[in-house]
Amino acid sequence: MSKNKSVKDILVLIVVSSLLFLLGNNIISLTNDNEVFYAQTAKEMIQQNTWSTPYLFGQPQFEKPIFTYWLLKLSFVIFGVNAFAARFFPAIFGILGVVALYFLGLLGFKDRLKAFLSSIILMSCGMYIGLAKSVFTDMFFSVLIMMSFLFFFYAYVNQKKKLFGLLSSAICMGFAVLTKGPLGVLIPFLAVVAFLLIKKDIRFLFCKETIWSLLVLLLTIAPWYILMIQKYGNTFINEFILNDNLRRVTEAQHGEHDTWYYYPSLIVSGMLPWSLFALGALIFLCKGLMRKENSFYVFLVCWIGSVFLIFQAAHSKVANYIFPIFPPIALLTGGFIRDILSNNRYKIILYVVLSVISFFVLAVPIALFFSSQKYASYIENRAGVYFLVAAFLLLAGAILFCIYRKKLFPAIYMVGAIVPIFLLSLPLIHNNFEPYISSKYASEYLLSNSNINNTIICSKTFVRGVKYYTDCDVAVLDMSGKQFFSPHPLTFLSSDEVLREFLAKQVITYGVVGKSSVEDIKRIAGSDFKVTLLKIIGNEYIIKVEHLEAQAD
């Protein structure tokens, strides 16, 4: 009977996560500037007819290893080059991660309900949904890390299956390294060693199964890295190993993020709407109200500690980097909720937290409704506001009703609907927000209304998107002179003299730039050029610069 229930749980998780992560992935165009970065690389790999070397702007680029681009290229080959295809495999890995977490929860908790609750929590938290519906490496990397932990723990608790578990864990780590680099091994290694040392069981690794696993790990990782070093030598070593890995440890890509509280605040916000439950789970774990002697809880703490310490120590802090910490927090949270539900002494905590969440759900649409009256000009579709207000009012009312009737399980599951309802409402509220996050419309306007046969100048934020959507040559206009963190083989216009020289070489130059750049261009161009603002689409200003002297000739 229990096995049948587990099968039903898995089917429910697959169906619900598929609906959440796959539906609507073609509605919003690929966004600036990261989604188009990965998509453009895979697109150029198709154009270059290669499966081994990532390309960007016509040149090999090594900001990330190859696995993400393999998946994107495969998806483009199957579905065509479009937004749904680009987001297909992140969604598939999102679904895979939800199911993998369920199996890990079953294995560790030996409690079907704890495993199911944990998967629901992970599937419905804000950051997980966001990364399952967008093109980044982080969903692939985090799921592969999670699966490496799943197979290791399977080997640990099932010694007869040790070879299978460790080999499978090694393969997952290998593909994690092919997704994001050495961290694919470092995170599991530190967590596993810490766990075994705490359990005084480090001898678990001193066996022939570990040797075979290390060999499989090397066989998974080595071919691509050896090929890149053979073909590109110091270019690959300097860009990938020194710049994109070691430099991120010692130098902040975004200086304002390099604070002690950046990742803790992201964890709290990224776990919404489960943040209060997650904080409660961590507090109760620290106070010993959960069974810390349980190997699984020790394992989860080592997992969390490994991820947090590695990324907190690095100076280059980016929101998505901390994402591998979310699965173990989801497991702790699911276990916490289940334990509280079965303990009348602490059940009041659930009533309090659910009440706070329900009032928050009430406050958001009410605030949005009154804000929409004050800022009506920014709202394209008032029906979307009314939908969100009505949906959140109904949801809050349903949660409060369940609390009143002491039906805590339905109330907890309703919490999981908060983020999906909110995300569903955004396109309804503002039909015209897409031009502010994607260069698709600006690019389409240029292609439809201009005869472009030379290089388009773009603000740094827009350059990857304009390249992706036009396939034209592009140059970067950034008067601050700040380069990309990773080298880009592009003309970089960062001074008055360089920009004037560039404009003088083209009879007509088109541009997709920010508002401040339009003023810079007009000031620098002077009387030798005619600058025309063709169109404003979102926050992108489409301009035409005519070289008057060249036209006269």
List the helices and strands and how they pair.
Layout: H1 2-22, H2 34-48, E1 55-56, E2 59-60, H3 67-79, H4 83-109, H5 112-124, H6 126-132, H7 138-157, H8 162-180, H9 183-198, H10 208-232, H11 234-250, H12 262-270, H13 275-287, H14 295-313, H15 326-341, H16 347-374, H17 382-404, H18 408-415, H19 418-429, H20 440-449, E3 456-459, H21 460-470, E4 474-477, E5 491-493, H22 496-504, E6 508-513, H23 515-525, E7 529-537, E8 540-547, H24 548-552
Parallel strand pairs: 3-4, 3-6, 4-5
Antiparallel strand pairs: 1-2, 6-8, 7-8
Helix pairs in contact: 1-4, 1-5, 2-3, 2-21, 3-4, 4-5, 4-6, 4-7, 5-15, 7-8, 7-9, 8-9, 8-10, 9-14, 12-13, 13-15, 14-15, 16-17, 16-18, 17-18, 17-19, 20-21
Could you explain how this protein is built, in words?
- The chain is of the alpha/beta class.
- 66% of the residues lie in helices and 7% in strands.
- A hairpin with a 2-residue loop joins strand 1 (55-56) and strand 2.
- It is globular, with a radius of gyration of 26 Å.
- It starts with a helix and ends with a helix.
What's the short version?
By secondary structure, the chain is an alpha/beta fold.
Backbone CA Rg: 26 Å
How many individual helices? 24
What proportion of the residues form beta strands (DSSP E)? 5-15%
Structural class, by secondary structure, is: alpha/beta
Q: Give the end-to-end Cα distance, rounded to a whole number of Å.
A: 86 Å
Biggest β-sheet: count, sense, barrel? 6 strands, mixed
Q: How many domains in all?
A: 3
- Regions with pLDDT < 50 over 5+ consecutive residues? none
Helical content, roughly? Answer: 55-70%
- Net shape: globular
Strand order of the largest sheet: 5-4-3-6-8-7
Mean pLDDT over the residues = 90
The tally of strands reads: 8
